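Recall the central idea of this unit: under ordinary conditions, the amino acid sequence of a chain determines the structure it adopts. In this exercise we apply that idea directly, starting from the sequence alone.
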Amino acid sequence: MSLQETVLMQLRDRILSGEFEPGQRLAEQQLAEQLGASRTPVRAALGTLEQEGLVEANEAGKYLVRRFTPREVADAIAVRGHLEGMAARLVAEHGLPRQLQLDLQACLEEGDAVLAAKKPDYDSYAGYAAMNDRFHGLILQACGNRALQRAVALNNSLPFAPPSAMLPMQSALPQDWDWMRYAHRQHHMLFDALQRGEGARAQALAMEHTEVAQMNMRLALERRAETERVLPAMRLVVGR
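Accordingly, the structure predicted from this sequence is:
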């Protein structure tokens, strides 16, 4: 990666890890010193993060860490559902290539194995999250619509919008494991719709699938203190 790309990645990660407070000013010189870079790539990275929606400029042109309302997060998750629904419909209508079928089946089998555990641990959640991201990414990549792919990438830069964003909090309550099983059953149903070439059904299933993420966000807001220990970026979400 170029220096500018490295600085952008580091700043994005620091914001999403909750290192900065919502509304905190991001001073170019201070960030440049912390990251071992000049102000030029830092300024460029802040401009990109403003386009992504993670920072905002005040009247004086200074960059601040953006605050998010619960409604904004819910809207971002809903947008992902609509975009991934369109991607699933396109894949179903184009026909499922053999290699994609095998790759998706491998994801389903991996998820089945993880969820077969009676007492999940951290590695179980990490394994499921990796599988989940791969499953969603395979469908998006196969849809063939580059504008759609860019729109998903931009939307997923917002806090808690990506497919596995809420999974780190899943271990908080026993019933969360049941919700993960439910979400994985939806993966199986979506795969079936893709195989059968049922575009409308695949689209509806992909959109419905994001309701699990919406439910997790509602639970996270209800038990905010507990959630912030495992998801520090929850501090960026202000209000209920």
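The first strand starts at residue 55 and ends at 57.
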